Amino acid sequence: MVEEGAYWLAWAQISGIGPVLLRRLQQHFGTLATAWKATKVQLGEVEGFGFQTLEKVVQQRSRLHPEQLFTKHQQENSHFWTPADADYPRLLLETPSPPPILYYRGEVELQENLGQKPMVGIVGTRQPSEYGIRWTRQISTALAKNGFTVVSGMAEGIDTESHIAAMKAGGRTIAVLGTGVDVIYPHKNRDLYKQILTAGLVVSEYPTKTPPDRKHFPRRNRIIAGLSRAILVMEAPLKSGALITATYANEFGRDVYALPGRLDDHPSQGCLKLLSQGASFILKELDELLTMLGAIPQIDAVEASIAPEQLMPTLSPELQTVMDAIASDALPFDFIVQQTGMAAGSVSGALLQLELMGFVSQLPGMRYQKS
């Protein structure tokens, strides 16, 4: 039997099928394996599958063999996750456009992937002022010393300063690249890259040997926002990529903080714009910032303080039906669909909601069990 992860990889090879359409496919058919066998007419029922996209699917799907493709891909890219893997970062999986393949290098910490260790993104301009550098170092240091993982993009400027400060403080950091995980960009950060591999993780949605491309960097910003429970924008002009990250953070329901600056400082104009739009201020009293960030509920924090009988809220009839069909032992997705008598797409959506609520756990091979 071909694992579900192979189908995530296979679908991602078809031109015109991006992360959003892949998520819709999964929700509609229940599994991407089922979607792979769907007819042209059935695929046309999925939102976003227009005539041109359907033609590409028909033409390219016949030339792809998921199992062979997956085996070859593993040989060329030794470490990667798909949304079918239990280790795929939970917070990223919540977003509307999780990467179908997430490559990684470095030291994996399972608590981060499960959303049980707080991760905070720090972003900003590639040409920061002394003021921006000073506060980036102070905040990154404080976060690292208080158990937060610092997430950034390993670009020049604010990104670089946040990674270095977090590691100097003995903390972990994650770098999200716009290249393959084996391609160092900018090249001057080669020593930083090596340090991150020993004190954190490097991740990317692009396969090994992928060179820098201007289109890749705005897209990788959604991953920084998706991995993080909050985004801190330290210094950013009005056209900064950091504002793209903040936009994604707002869309994903993450908290956004901005460092205030003077009205006539060019590097601060983007931060001032964010503050005028409702972002929270980063103030001098860092204890207050740490308190606010620490107050963001972790996936397991609420569960630890509530009695078991209080954990289960009143569920909608659809969610309750799916919940009743799941046992403590892992059950395959198809069996759950059969037990509920519901459409595969409805079951898939219900399982995702139950998983985000912490009541259901997904295991490899599209198997589910009660948490």
Automatic annotation (TrEMBL):
Origin superkingdom: Bacteria
Domain Smf/DprA SLOG: start-end pairs: 80-291
SUPFAM superfamilies according to UniProt: MCP/YpsA-like, RuvA domain 2-like
Residue span(s) of domain DprA winged helix: 308-366
Pfam families to which the protein is assigned, alphabetical: DNA_processg_A (PF02481), WHD_DprA (PF17782)
Gene3D superfamilies assigned: 3.40.50.450, Winged helix-like DNA-binding domain superfamily/Winged helix DNA-binding domain (1.10.10.10)
PANTHER family in the record: PROTEIN SMF
Family as reported in the entry's similarity comment: Belongs to the DprA/Smf family.
Protein name: DNA-processing protein DprA
Organism for this UniProt entry: Nostoc favosum CHAB5714
